[in-house]
Amino acid sequence: MRDSQATVRTLLTRAAAATLLALAAIPGAHAQQPKLKVGLMLPATGTFATVGTAISNGFRLAVAEQGGKFAGREIEFFTVDDESDPAKAPENANKLVKRDQVDVLVGTVHSGVAMGMAKVARDNNTLLIIPNAGADEITGPLCAPNIFRTSFTNWQPGYATGKMVAERKHRTVVTLAWKYAAGEQSVAGFKEAFEAGGGKVIKELTLPFPNVEFQPFLTEIAALKPDAVYVFFSGGGAVKFVKDYAAAGLKASIPLYAAGFLTDGTLEAQGDAAQGIMTVLHYADALDNPRNRTFRAAYNKAYKMDPDVFAVQGYDAAQLLDAGVTAVRGDMSRRADLVKAMETARIDSPRGPFVLSKAHNPVQDMYVRRVEGTDNKVIGIAIKGLADPARGCRL
Amino acid sequence: MDPVTFLIQSLNGLQYGLLLFLVASGLTLVFGIMGVVNLAHGSFYMIGAYLAFSLSALTGSFFGAVALGIVLSVVFGLLLEWALFSRLYHRDHLDQVLLTYGLILIFEELRSLAVGDDVHSVAMPDFLSASIPLTDTLSYPVYRLFMSGICIVLAMSMYVVIQRTRLGMRIRAGTSNREMAQGLGIDIRLLFRFVFAFGVALAALGGMLAAPVSSVFPGMGSQVLILCFVVVVIGGIGSVWGALLAALLIGFTDTFGKVLFPDYAGLSVYVLMAAILLWRPAGLFGRA
């Protein structure tokens, strides 16, 4: 009895499946261009969830502005939550590449995860656009024709801050950062420019990621009495550091400088403690150009919230893809032409127009911003058109 | 390191240790005394911090928020014990791990839906927001000293209640032999329900008090969870004194580890744990 029931059920299931397959085949008769499959691999949970959402929003906004189509091909999204877990990166990326057969992979925030994605992209020769993760290696030793980035390298804001701090006549600096790739590379960039400008990094302090017990380091900084301090922190850690720095009374005597992530998306929580802090980044919310104003208005209208630097990077990832797809009229098999078009594209970004370096990383202006109220006011440009040196890249 | 810096670093270690005790004290009750492996302890800490954030916006006063938050978290603890944890006392530890891990995911998702994923700050009361100058460049925030004071008071009261009162005797009796204690007429179910609820409230209190200095952000619970377990394990499961001593040891090890061996700072606490467990497998005050 049980067996026969099971057989009936199996038969029914198979019949249903066959019908569905047959139905699915019919729309081919329309002879419409197949959809362009975009795989968004971003964090939807955890510490970086807001960043993932901003990137996704930015990307989708740029697609919507083109009527949901690039070169006549409708965009179809496939999404995976990468959980910012490097251990799961190859598996997650393979889900999109092998199972969903996406035409392009877009992601992610965490550098370790992005490295895993880059490996999968290289192995399968899949087009990859990175909308945030700043690991120097990706557009350095690991650069590849099919790998692009629309954000920054960790080196870029660090280097630009180093130059600015040297120009402001500070002679000695203590650095403090989380001991992981982004922190170390940011500090290395800072040190390179700062010491070339005649300064001296007298001590490089680090703490394990994502530890936020800063008190021993503040004591150390107070004992060393440098002219200035350079740090790399973001998110919750950035809020805590800025408040602790002020509460320890150091803000009044030793100026604090940082890559812009220290004061991006965190100003409301940092409040008074952040006032006057100068940072360097390739974008600022308050950046005054027509492109940024229209972008911000459109984003605000679509999502009922203000965009941030991450939204811009996601938006530009879509713009870069559009430039390539449009140049080959939607024919993704013309990979060489597609890559060439993306390489030579001039992206009209809210951060100001940029082109890509040989290693496929933005060549961009680095803005000096100072915290006023809940805004990062742009007060100048640290370096115009800064390109990452892309050490080790053979493109 | 000159003597002044050494003294200030010792103060840092002491203060961090006490803060760790505050956060781990609830786990001492729930895991140490009741024997429930509660991975959701960090979530209670996170919930406390978010309660401080939303309630202080609502009531306009930080202490009002803390008072209300404690009441709410006790009620929450009672409900949780009644609905879920009371079914787990006789089960395998693995079942407890599964349930509490699931709770972490649920609480984190609920938080995301209710408050969003942004970083928020909680204003500290004005009279505690000052700093005391220690050297010409460095000052010490009064709020941190205030937290340390609360932690000491808390440690004392926990010790007195558990070791020196009839109530504490009953709790300990229930832990070492549930059936026997019940046979002597103690309502263990009710007792444990309240012990659990106070464990939750202590974790939440830790979150509430830490909120003004650490700010409020997604994933903040997971940062403290591991350290809490380290504190309870080093101290010896179930010992309040042990937990206090362990928290202080960790505070000092972490502080001086960061300054003296920066490259291995992430390891120092775990090296300490391994060394202590090799020397005393049941922890400092544990009975093997």
Features:
heterodimer; A: 395 residues; alpha/beta; Rossmann fold; eight-stranded mixed sheet; six-stranded mixed sheet; 13 helices; B: 288 residues; ABC transporter involved in vitamin B12 uptake, BtuC; two-stranded antiparallel ribbon; 2% strand
Task: Walk me through what this model shows.
The complex is a heterodimer of chains A (395) and B (288). Chain A is α/β, with parallel strands linked by helices. Chain A has helices at 2-25, 49-65, 89-99, 111-124, 155-167, 181-196, 215-224, 235-247, 250-253, 267-270, 290-303, 309-327, 335-344, and strands at 36-42, 69-70, 73-81, 104-106, 127-130, 147-149, 172-178, 200-207, 228-232, 256-259, 278-281, 355-356, 362-372, 375-386. Chain B is an all-alpha fold and 288 residues long. Chain B has one domain (3-279): ABC transporter involved in vitamin B12 uptake, BtuC (Orthogonal Bundle). Chain B is built from 11 helices and 2 strands. Chain B has helices at residues 3-33, 41-59, 62-83, 93-115, 142-164, 166-176, 178-183, 188-214, 220-235, 240-260, 265-279, and strands at residues 131-133, 139-141. The chains are: A alpha/beta (395), B mainly alpha (288). Chain A binds chain B through residues 45-47, 49-50, 53, 179, 205-208, 210-213, 215-220, 222-223, 225, 235-236, 239-240, 243-244, 247-250, 253-254, 265-266, 268-271, and chain B through 1-2, 5, 8-9, 12-13, 15-16, 108-109, 112, 116-121, 131, 133, 135-141, 143-144, 213-220, 223, 254-256, 258-259, 262-263, 265-266.
